[in-house]
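Following up on my earlier thread - several people asked me to post the actual chain instead of describing it. Fair enough. Here it is, all 263 residues.
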Amino acid sequence: MSATGSTRRETGMRVAVAGGTGLVGRYVVEELVAAGQEPVVLARSRGVDLVAGGPSLDAAMDGVAAIIDVSNVTTTNAKKAVAFFDATGTHLRDAGARAGVRHHVVLSIVGIDRVGLGYYQGKLHQEDVVMKGPAPWTVLRATQFHEFAEQVLDRVPKPLAVVPRMRTQPIAAREVAQYLVHLTLDPPQGMAPDLAGPRVEQLVDMVRRLLRARQQRRLLVPVTMPGATGAAMTGDGQLPDGPGPRGTQTFDAWLAQYGTQEG
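Reply from S.P.:
Thanks for posting it. Predicted structure:
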C-alpha cells in the first residue's frame, strides 16, 4: 500500500480504539502494538459502553493521547444508525476533550455523501460530530472490505443469496488498519484522501466467487436498488473520486486464503 512517509513516530503513546474487538479494530490493536504504541480497547466486552458513556469511559481514557474510532452498528435504518453514531461519537469526543486527546481519527466509508443508504446517514453524522469537536481530527473514508461479500451473504437466509448490484473497489481490512495507524501517528489532516483496494469489482461477482470458495449451492438473485440510490451504487457512487492510497491485496488473493484467516 502506498503511503507518505512520516515525520513523527512517537512511541509508547496510549491510543484508544473504539470498537477494538471488531473486524478492523482487532487489526488496529495489532498494528498499534507493532508500532510500539499502547492500545486501549473501548468495547462493552472490556467494560466500556460507548453508547451509554459514563465513568467507565472516562477511566479508560485516562492518559490517552489519540482516538481511533472504528465502532460499528449493524442496521440499515437511518434513525437507528444516526442515534448510534450520535451517542458513541459524542461520548468519545467529550471524553477525549476531558482527557486532553490530541488527535481524533474516524474510519468512514467512500461515497456516503453520494449514496442515499440509511446506514450512510449515520456515518455522515459521525463525521460531523468529530468535526465539531475540540480535538484536531482526521477522517479516513475507505471502500468496502473484502469481507463485505461475506457479510452480505450471511444476512440472507438460505437457499437464496439476494445481492445488490454494486460497484466497489474492495480492500483488505488489515490494510485499512495499517493506514489508520499511519494516519494516527502523523499530524491531523482533516479529510484524508480516500483509501481503496487495487481493483474495481462487482459485488454480485464477488459473492458468486465466494460461494464457489465455500462450495455452497445457493440461488444468487441480483437486485438493483431503486431510484438515485441504485444508480449511484451501480455507477461510480462508491468508488474513490480522486487519487489516494491504494491497498495491494486483491479480492481473489483474499479468497485464495479463505478459511485460513482469523475471523
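Strands lie at 14-18, 38-42, 66-69, 103-109, 137-142, 160-164, 167-168, 190-191, 201-202, 219-223. That should answer part of your original question.
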